[in-house]
Specification:
The complex is a heterotetramer of chains A (670), B (208), C (442) and D (370). Chain A contains 18 helices and two strands. Chain A has helices at residues 41-45, 50-79, 89-123, 132-151, 179-207, 220-251, 266-299, 306-319, 335-363, 372-395, 397-403, 407-437, 443-469, 491-519, 561-566, 584-593, 607-623, 626-644; strands spanning 567-569, 578-580. Chain A has a two-stranded antiparallel ribbon. In chain A, strand 1 and strand 2 (578-580) form a beta hairpin. In chain A, helix 4 packs antiparallel against helix 5 and helix 7 (266-299) packs parallel to helix 9 (335-363). Chain A is globular, with a radius of gyration of 26 Å. By secondary structure, chain B is an all-alpha fold. Chain B starts with 12 loop residues before the first helix and ends with a helix. Chain D folds into two domains: 2-156, no CATH class; 237-368, Sandwich (Immunoglobulin-like). In chain D, 51% of the residues lie in helices and 14% in strands. Chain D has helices at residues 2-19, 23-46, 61-65, 74-90, 93-117, 123-160, 164-187, 193-217, 228-233, 345-349, and strands at 259-263, 269-273, 276-280, 284-285, 292-298, 307-309, 320-322, 331-336, 353-357, 360-368. The chains are: A mainly alpha (670), B mainly alpha (208), C alpha+beta (442), D alpha+beta (370).
Chain lengths: 670, 208, 442, 370
């Protein structure tokens, strides 16, 4: 395991003329002295601790959420009345392009990555992910990619072709600023981050589970994360190809999308949506995982049909590859393709429906406690169901030709993404906040947060159903009275409602940040070890967890291991009678007492952040100056070699984390 | 999936042992990661090959594929790349026998054969260019150069990794298990070879 | 159309959203009135609003044959979705109310019963199968082009539509033989004119980026992709003007790329056709319009074609007259500009973005009953009805009126060709002349 | 070193001045000589160049205890770099860049060495410290350079060999040698590292030599392949086979063209448009200023090509477009953009647009561009 990797003295080579087989701890074979700080800014900059990286993912994602939210508010301000003048046509086009790009790639995906990073190793009883340095590299690459993408605002304008960036509208002739270049390269960079993250997490889940944790005992959140990582693993290279083609088209005059050379613009659409549709599940499945964790805890019942939820998650992931063309029902595919993709799309509603029913059945017969995370989880069920059902209405291809590219679609996917993914992520934030930061988020504020968000989102996106069915297309920087109609369903009224709703929603989200402040003021109580009476492994340790996560690697006998350590069924036959046999404090204390005698964590490293830094440099090079590419490449190459030759742990600075209450024997190496 | 959770609950000794990685599947993390990476690469080349197959006939009044190919030459260079897979196997087997000297020798031979292949590709591209097939000439040329270029870059990166590996073995600076590291490089190298066989068949041999 | 009620629409739309009651009450106000309280109040409000017109692009008021097919398929789906939604929410509500923590004992720790799970897989599967079968049928029916009676080519470009009518093998256009002139291809823009009761096949492509042709009341949308030809069937029995809008994002002025389809009775279509093919007549000598013709030739004809326009300036010998042929491909990146031969026969301009008619005159045409619609439309734009303010603003500075890439100096990527109409620095006198000239183009 | 450099530079200046007669070049070289001489003077004056020639006693004891700095090649490399850069300034920019790279590398290595030698009193530790940093940079650079030499030299050799066949022979021979040498070295353990290094050095020199010889000898001439664009420009789109028609493609991986134009077995041209599955021989109407992707299908039993004449002398439009010869049953894509409408005088003058097939007089199809 990487985290306890260290050199041995066993000669690995029998060759007679070979020098000492492997360098001994006394002779480091890294390049620089390793950074070893555990506090201060360096401990964050060079950290490879999955928990610190998870928190950083979360903070950065939240920052981008705010940026994307401001973009959304500007869009709604522009559309509040006819012939809006808040934004110019050009600015508006940039705004909706970047709103979607930011929300999808820089908020929802990294927010899910934040939870995945923080929780997956804890949920499977591991001390870190399989490749901690790659993990750090993934985070910094995502951050630099996101910053790179957003620098386009001040460097001549952001991308203006929509997040789907259909060719040939993305060619230089039609989008002459560098915005699309920034977009393509920025996504390429964040794609690298996602790909490395995917490989890392897959290996982690497959290989680093605690003893006894068979695949069907893996917590559902971790399961969903694994499905998502497989989707990423296979979806990212497809968009990579598309983005390369676009880059060659724009920067090196290739002709992939030049119709005058005989190109077929539908190539881009196919490549984009083969990536883009799995992307939808990449966005929403982590939230499904969170909801599936939260509901059982507050229903005091295991997840109804756990195996079925696992398989339906995998089925969604699998079938998700066969439905991409339902984004293209109007683009002139033949009737046969349209019929096939239409039916396939309906088929994917089945596993999705299974999830919803399983959630409701989990609650059925339970002992429901409506805390804020539970409220959000129930919110997901309601809002996502609406989004799912409107989805069924346009899986019917002929019906879709009336609805696609109208506000009806905007309504649909916001119910799915905001109602499904974002509410789910908020549920996770409230649920795991005490685990991550050791303080409870204020429940009262949390309720304000929840209700304002729910009311706001329904006010914003609900009217969009009406707008779309009344024929208002998407991506219009203005609408006119001429086409608004009168009467109850007139476009003007519902646009205004949507705009008002967006500000209610913004207020709701703001409450979350207020809540953080309120909950972390001086004098607030430390959270108890097990505030929710939770069920899974991540709670069998302190809050926040120690750097090495568990003093003793837990051994797992049940799906809901923590629950089974706390409770015992003393009933007979069909009669069940659960008694608490241990408190969380007792369980954690016992683990500490029997802690492993020595634990090696991988040391922090300079190389991941350096290598990440090389990527945007090269990307700027592609846009502005070819020599910058050379400079960036040199830095990348240097970092890769530095990385390659660096041992996983710093031999001079073996780190044995001190544990409270127990004396750990210092590692001895002969 | 082999669902064998090994229980290292008692032994920290196991942790310190380099050779035996205790993972839930028994497969080392590095190897699993390499397989995942190669799986991802399949789709990368899948996308590029699809693009090429769509555009191979689209060159309007410019040069078409069968007008520039030099099949005998490309066959020779393909054979050289195939041979490099053989030498890679020899390198891996030497590494497993902990024979550093021959590992280095075979890795070097592999790298050299790879370099010859890349040189052949450079030569081939040069002749194509002289014959009038530039990168921006037509859809066919753009997609051809992109596909084979991507493969060439993969080979080149592989060669640099191989030579570096030779250096690292020489200086005894391979972190982790040496035999496994060589094996991982081998996996990558074989993958690149297999992709070439696919490209050679689809791009060169099937007439447009 | 405003007063038409559509039963199907009412049921299914309501099934889906929060305003279920609203729609029902809109149709059936009498029954609603019996219900006291809020419902009655809403009912009254809706009853009032039911008299008002809905948005012209309402997808729930099909007129055309294909739109009707789509509608017949979609309302049961909406209804089903609504019912499923209500059931799920009902179940959820019961669960939430019944099982909240009232101090009951810890529930049984069970992962559920397989029977229930399989049932919950089977139910949606059956429902979806029931939806899938008619869907496939309608997909095939909509793609059917065998009985086409008329073919019209549609070409999209930033940010307007061009239509050209082909001459059929038998010398007719859409089955109509021109009365006087010989049949020749007709090129128009913005408003598509088709005969009623005719199965028209639009054969569409694009000159630059992807656009999408969508007239919601006649059919679903279809992308018009450069380098490809896609086709779309339109047909309607009811004469009228049907609004639509480009629905594939096509750049800066995407929001301003609109179109209308005009359905005319056969007689009226014949009239329209003859008018289109009428030979060009120059304005009378000495009039403002005659000066406008000269201005048009020097300022506009590089891009805008007026069929039959002849440059006879500075010569009395008719043999020296030269036919004025526009070369928009030298100045505009898409290579095309609207044909202005019969501009005032249409009632919108600049990609159907602006009206050529004043608000009153517009309402006369747009809200006309089907019986009188044809006459009113064919009357074209008269001097009294001309929306001169906007036309003037447009001629004064078009890029300011509609966002376009019109500054040739900034357009290095397109070799200085503009996208859309550039600023021409016309004097007020020239604008007067041009308006006088254009008013005669019908 | 600077002394030597100054002398060499002086000699170079004189030689260059006499042989090349370039004023600027001479001035540049004179400046370099002066600069080097000045440096040499400073070095000699400060006795920095030759500290150990003086009595060691004059230095304090601590220094004497320190390990002697090892031999270093970097000062030499730096001198070489400066000379190359100067030479580059007056000759080719490429040489200057080469010198600059060498300069940067030399300085970096020198600094690194100097730094590591002061790290501690333990020489082996110092070497270790140096290698930590140096290997990360040296290994990839060395790998890239080695790879570059092989690729560049070998591809030059192949471009230089007289015929296509001999490239295959050359390729096979080199590859076989590599394989055989590998096998021998692998089998014979008596071959030690120095011998292998020597082998590499020799092969490297041979390869570079071969590349250099080929480069100087000039490449074999590669003919630009004729295309239909070329034969159209030469007014040769006839029925007869040209060089451009050799191995021409016969299939297209797309179906949704604007129209399909078909040469029937009866020798007539018909067209068919999407959405209208009947063959028509009436005029084909196509939009103006649009990239019309048309398919030409040859259903006759002879090789035929499709030709269309466009507006003559019109900016941005070729006068004629033709396909290559299409086999019986074959298909080819032809993209036509009509910039001018049919009714324009320049088109009515040539009798309107029409597709025709050379060699089949009955095959004509009128095209109308409104």
């Amino acid at each position: 395991m990487a985290i306890i990797e260290r050199p041995t003295d066993t000669p690995a080579v029998v060759s007679p003329d070979a020098a000492p087989a492997v360098a001994t701890p006394a002779t480091s074979y890294g390049v620089f002295r390793r950074p070893v700080e555990t506090t201060g800014w360096k401990s964050w900059l060079f950290t490879i601790d999955h928990k610190k990286l998870g928190i950083m993912y979360g903070v950065v994602a939240m920052a981008f959420f705010v940026i994307g939210g401001i973009e959304a508010l500007l869009i709604r301000l522009q559309l509040a009345g006819p012939d809006g003048t808040v934004l110019s046509a050009d600015a508006y086009n940039q705004m909706f392009t970047m709103h979607a790009t930011t929300m999808v790639f820089l908020f929802v995906m990294p927010m899910a990555a934040a939870f995945a990073n923080y929780m997956v190793p804890l949920q499977i009883g591991a001390r870190d992910v399989a490749f901690p340095r790659i993990n750090a590299f993934g985070f910094w690459t995502f951050l630099f990619g996101g910053l790179f993408l957003n620098t386009s605002w001040i460097l001549g304008g952001a991308a203006d072709g929509g997040w789907f960036m259909y060719a040939p509208n993305s060619s230089v002739a039609f989008s002459p600023t560098n915005g699309v270049d920034f977009w393509a390269l920025g996504l390429q960079i964040t794609g690298i981050a996602s790909l490395t993250g995917a490989i890392n997490l897959i290996v982690t889940v497959i290989n680093m589970r605690a003893p006894g944790m068979s695949l069907m005992k893996v917590p559902i959140f971790t399961w969903m994360i694994m499905v998502v990582q497989f989707l990423l693993l296979f979806a990212i290279p497809v968009i990579t190809v598309a983005l390369f083609l676009l880059m060659f088209q724009r920067s090196f005059d290739a002709t992939f999308f030049s119709v005058e050379a005989g190109a077929d613009p539908l190539l881009w659409q196919h490549l984009f949506w083969i990536f883009g549709h799995p992307e939808v599940y990449i966005i929403v499945l982590p939230a499904f995982g969170i909801v599936s964790e939260v509901l059982p805890v507050f229903s005091k019942k295991p997840l109804f049909g756990y195996p079925l939820v696992v398989f339906s998650g995998a089925a969604i992931g699998f079938v998700g590859w066969g439905v991409w063309a339902h984004h293209m029902f109007a683009s002139g595919l033949g009737p046969i393709s349209v019929a096939v993709f239409s039916v396939a799309t309906m088929a994917i509603a089945i596993p999705t429906g299974v999830k919803i029913i399983n959630w409701v059945m989990t609650m059925w017969g339970g002992k429901l406690k409506f805390t804020v995370p539970m409220l959000y989880a129930v919110g997901v069920i309601v809002q996502f169901t609406i989004g799912g059902l409107s989805g069924v209405t346009h899986s019917v291809a002929p019906s879709d030709t009336q609805q696609t590219d109208t506000y009806y679609i905007v309504a649909h996917f916001h119910y799915v993404i905001f109602g499904g993914a974002v509410l789910g992520l908020f549920s996770g934030l409230y649920y795991w906040w005490p685990k991550m930061f050791g303080k409870m988020l204020n429940e009262r504020m949390g309720r304000w947060n929840f209700w304002l968000t729910i009311i706001g989102m329904n006010l914003t996106f609900g009217p969009m159903h009406v707008l779309g069915l009344q024929g208002q297309p998407r991506r219009m920087y203005r609408w006119t009275e001429n086409r608004a109609g009168e009467g109850f369903f007139n476009i003007g009224f519902w646009n205004l409602i949507a705009s008002i709703g967006s500000f209610v929603l913004a207020l709701g989200v703001l409450m979350f940040f207020v809540n953080i402040y309120v909950s972390h003021r001086k004098g607030t109580q430390k959270a108890p070890l097990d505030p929710w009476d939770a069920r899974s492994l991540e709670w069998i340790t302190t809050s926040p967890p120690k750097e090495h996560n568990f003093d003793r690697t837990p051994t797992v006998g049940h799906l809901d291991e923590f629950f089974h350590r706390k409770y015992e069924d003393r009933g007979e036959g069909d009669h069940h009678d659960y008694h608490q046999v241990a408190t969380a404090e007792e369980i954690v204390a016992e683990e500490e007492a029997k802690g492993d005698s020595h634990i090696h964590l991988p040391s922090p490293s300079y190389w991941p952040i350096l290598l990440s830094l090389a990527l945007p440099i090269m990307a700027y090079g592609v846009i502005y100056n070819i020599w910058l590419i050379a400079g960036g490449a040199a830095l990348a190459l240097l970092s890769m070699y530095g990385w390659g030759m660096e041992p996983h742990t710093a031999p001079d600075d073996d780190y044995d984390p001190p544990a409270a209450g127990t004396e750990l024997e210092v590692a001895a190496h002969g | 999936m082999a669902d064998t959770a090994v229980a290292p609950a008692t032994g920290h000794d196991a942790h310190d042992d380099h050779g035996a990685h205790h993972t839930s599947t028994g497969l080392s993390n590095n190897k699993l990661a390499m397989w995942m990476f190669l799986g991802s690469e399949c789709l990368l080349f899948g996308g590029l090959i699809s693009t090429y197959m769509l555009y191979r006939g689209r060159h309007s009044e410019n040069l078409g594929p069968d007008q520039v190919w030099d099949i005998p030459f490309t066959s020779a260079s393909s054979f050289v790349l195939l041979m490099s897979s053989l030498t890679m196997v020899l390198a891996v087997s030497s590494a497993h026998r902990k024979d550093d000297r021959n590992t280095k020798v075979w890795l070097m031979v592999t790298a050299l054969l790879g370099a010859l292949f890349v040189a052949g590709q450079v030569y081939e591209f040069t002749t194509f260019y002289r014959e009038g097939l530039g990168f921006t000439t037509s859809l066919f040329s753009s997609s051809f150069y992109t596909l084979t270029g991507f493969h060439g870059v993969h080979v080149t990166v592989g060669i640099i990794m191989l030579t570096s590996l030779v250096g690292m073995i020489g200086k005894n600076r391979v972190p982790g298990d040496k035999a496994e590291t060589v094996e991982l490089f081998g996996l990558y190298w074989h993958f690149v070879d297999v992709v070439w066989i696919l490209i050679f068949t689809l791009v060169y041999l099937i007439p447009a | 159309m405003s007063s038409r009620t559509n039963h199907d629409r009412t049921i299914s739309d309501g099934s889906h959203d929060a305003h279920t009651l609203d729609r029902v009450s809109a149709v059936n106000p009498r029954r609603r009135r019996r219900i006291p309280g809020i419902a009655a109040a809403i009912g009254a409000a809706i009853a009032l609003s039911a008299c008002a017109t809905d948005a012209p692009q309402d997808t729930w008021q099909p007129v055309g044959e294909n739109a009707q097919k789509i509608h017949d398929l979609q309302w049961p789906v909406f209804l089903t979705a609504g019912i499923v939604g209500v059931l799920v929410f009902g179940l959820l509500a019961v669960t939430v109310l019944r099982f909240r923590d009232k101090g009951q004992a810890m529930p049984e720790q069970t992962h559920g019963k397989p029977v229930i799970e399989y049932l919950f897989i089977a139910i949606p599967a059956v429902i979806l199968a029931a939806i899938a079968i008619p869907t496939v049928g309608v997909v095939m029916a909509l793609a059917d082009t065998d009985d086409t009676e008329c073919v019209i080519n549609v070409t999209g470009q930033q940010w307007w539509w061009e239509y050209d009518y082909e001459v059929e093998d038998d010398g007719t256009i859409c089955g109509f033989a021109p009365t006087a002139a010989e049949a020749a291809p007709i090129v128009t823009s913005g408003q598509l004119v088709i005969p009623a009761d005719t199965k028209v096949l639009l054969r569409g492509t694009s000159r630059d980026v992807i656009h999408s042709y969508w007239i919601p009341r006649l059919n679903g949308k279809r992308d018009m992709v450069p380098g490809r030809v896609h086709y779309l069937r339109l047909s309607s029995e009811t004469p009228g003007i049907y609004a639509g809008q480009c629905t594939e994002f096509c750049g800066l002025s995407h929001a301003n790329m609109r179109m209308e389809t005009i359905v005319l009775e056969p007689d009226h279509f014949q009239q329209w056709l003859d008018n289109e093919l009428e030979p060009y007549t120059s304005p009378e000598e000495g009039t403002l319009a005659a000066a406008g013709e000269a201005t048009f030739i020097t300022q506009c004809s590089r891009c805008h074609q007026v069929n039959g326009l002849v440059d006879d300036r500075g010569t009395d010998d008719p043999d020296d007259d030269t036919l004025v042929v526009s070369y928009p491909d030298q100045f505009v990146y898409s290579g095309a500009a609207p044909n202005l031969t019969n501009l005032m026969g249409r009632n919108t301009f600049a990609g159907a973005t602006f009206d050529l008619l004043t608000d009153e005159c517009r309402a006369d045409v747009w809200e006309a009953d089907p019986e009188v619609f044809g006459e009113r439309y064919l009357a074209g734009v008269t001097e009294d009805c001309l929306n001169e303010i906007e036309l003037r603003e447009w001629l004064r500075n078009s890029p300011a009126k509609k966002p376009m890439y019109a500054d040739a100096e900034m357009l290095t990527e397109t070799d200085g060709k503009t996208r859309g109409m550039p600023y021409l620095a016309l004097s007020e006198d020239q604008i007067d002349e041009l308006i006088a000239y254009l008013l005669e183009r019908k | 070193m600077f002394t030597t450099g100054a002398v060499a530079s002086l000699a170079g200046t004189v030689a260059y001045g006499v042989l090349a007669e370039g004023t600027m070049g001479t001035i540049g070289l004179v400046s370099a000589t002066v600069a080097l001489a000045t440096l040499a003077g400073i070095v000699i004056f400060t006795r920095d160049a030759n500290v150990f020639a003086d009595e060691p006693d004059t230095f304090d004891g601590a220094a004497a205890n320190a390990a002697r700095p090892g031999a270093s090649m970097w000062p030499f490399a730096l001198g070489l770099a400066v000379t190359t850069m100067t030479l580059g300034l007056v000759t080719y920019p490429a040489i200057f860049i080469l010198g600059a790279i060498l300069f940067v590398a030399g300085i970096a290595e020198w600094i690194l060495q100097a730094w590591s030698e002061r790290a501690s009193a333990d020489a082996s530790h110092n070497a270790e410290v140096r290698s930590r940093l140096a290997y990360t940079a040296e290994m990839p650079v060395a790998a890239a350079i080695g790879l570059g030499i092989v690729i560049y030299s070998f591809s030059r050799v192949m471009l230089g060999v007289p015929s296509k066949t001999s490239t295959i022979v050359a390729f096979s021979i080199v590859a076989t040698i590599v394989l055989i040498l590998g096998a021998i070295v692998g089998a014979k353990r008596s071959i030690t590292a120095p011998k292998i290094t020597a082998l590499f050095a020799v092969s490297g020199v041979v390869l570079i030599g071969g590349g250099a010889v080929s480069g100087l000898n000039g490449e074999r001439h590669i003919h630009e392949h004729e295309t239909t664009a070329y034969i159209a420009a030469k007014d040769e789109c006839g029925a007869e086979k040209t060089y451009a028609d050799k191995h021409a493609s016969q299939t297209v991986a797309g179906k949704a063209g604007n129209a399909e134009v078909r040469l029937t077995a009866a020798g007539t041209l018909v067209h068919r448009k999407p959405g209208d599955e009947t063959d028509r021989s009436s005029a084909l109407q196509l939009p103006r200023s649009n990239a019309n992707n048309l398919l030409f299908r040859n259903d006759s039993d002879e090789e035929r090509r499709l030709v269309i004449d466009l507006a003559p002398d019109y900016e941005g439009s070729p006068p004629r477009i033709c396909t290559t010869l299409v086999d019986p049953g074959g298909v080819q894509l032809i993209t036509v953009n009509f910039a001018v409408p049919s009714f324009a005088p320049e088109i009515t003058d040539i009798g309107g647009y029409r597709f025709y097939v050379p060699g089949v007089s009955s095959a004509e199809l009128e095209v109308v561009v409104p």
